[in-house]
Amino acid sequence: MGLVRSSYYERPASKAKADEPVVEVLNQVVAKHGRWGFRLCFDWMRNQGHAWNHKRVWRIYKQMGLNLPRRTKKRLPKIIKEPLIAPQELNTMWALDFMYDTLHYGRPFRTLKVIDESKREILAIEIDISLPAARVVRTLEQLEEIHGLPKAIRLDNGSKLRSAVFMGWCESKGIDLKFIQPGKPQQNTFIERFNRTYRHEVLNAYLFENFREASDIIESWIMIYNEERPHRSLGRVSPRDYRAKAENNTLGMFAAGATIRHPKKAAAYFAKVSE
């Protein structure tokens, strides 16, 4: 026919047919060890005597859709550390946080706390099985009717507080959200210190039968905390008395700011004002 020998060749088998043995073995491995990744599967195949090249096995592994999605760390916006300064004006900076506890028979519940940093007053404590972002917004709307809204709220980076529902509502109200740096609870130290008192005097002190009983006990404790319990950083007066004297202070909130930094001087000052 006039053809040179180099022109003759055997038609190569299709890739799919050539890859069938690899596919079969991979299916066996994945059926038995569903959470193994490529490297474990390939090493197991090698230990079983299969000498296929790792690049070939990896190509088939990807074509079969077996490569597991990587769990990537959630990236939060970079947060600049800010100095923790006690606000000198009432109702300008609130702090918000969640805590976890259980009823006496083990049913878990969450508790949301909102305090005013300037006067250390408890504004609200909500308890429920779940406290989604919409519930947090509803609580703040109720506080708006009583106290108005602050200029800023200090809070951590929880998913509910990073949600579009909560952040969008705060933006619409002109509230500046002061997120602390991840893993730095000391940057929200006012409410973290309050958490210790709340845990010691309420959550660890009672066995709650149900949510109604828990709510009643917490409401009673809030009244005691706000109206009777002396606070060292407020000059050893209760938050209610501190607020009343600060509002009546003819020198403005300068003395109130001094109260937080110098408890002994503040106590003497309030004693003089009361005379």
Concise synopsis of the structure shown:
By secondary structure, the protein is an alpha/beta fold. The protein has helices at 15-18, 20-32, 38-47, 54-63, 133-147, 164-172, 189-203, 211-227, 239-247, 254-261, 263-274, and strands at residues 93-102, 108-116, 121-128, 152-155, 176-179. 44% of the residues lie in helices and 13% in strands.
Distance, first to last CA: 126 Å
Q: SSE string, helix = H, strand = E?
A: HHHHEEEHEHEHHHHH
Count of structural domains: 3
The strand order across the widest sheet is 3-2-1-4-5
What class would the helix/strand composition place it in?
Answer: alpha/beta
The CATH architecture of the largest domain is 2-Layer Sandwich
Our count of helices gives 11
Kindly state the mean pLDDT as a whole number? 82
* CATH C-level class of the largest domain: Alpha Beta
Radius of gyration: 32 Å
* Sheet having the most strands: 5 strands, mixed
Low-confidence stretches: 250-263
- Give the strand tally: 5
Could you explain the architecture of this structure?
It is a single chain. The chain has three domains: 49 residues; 137 residues, Ribonuclease H-like superfamily/Ribonuclease H (Nucleotidyltransferase, domain 5), CATH 3.30.420; 44 residues, no CATH class. Strands 3-2-1-4-5 form a five-stranded mixed beta sheet, sandwiched between helices. α10 crosses α11. A hairpin with a 4-residue loop joins β2 and β3. The protein is of the alpha/beta class and 275 residues long.
Topology (SSEs and partners):
Elements: H1 15-18, H2 20-32, H3 38-47, H4 54-63, E1 93-102, E2 108-116, E3 121-128, H5 133-147, E4 152-155, H6 164-172, E5 176-179, H7 189-203, H8 211-227, H9 239-247, H10 254-261, H11 263-274
Parallel strand pairs: 1-4, 4-5
Antiparallel strand pairs: 1-2, 2-3
Helix pairs in contact: 10-11
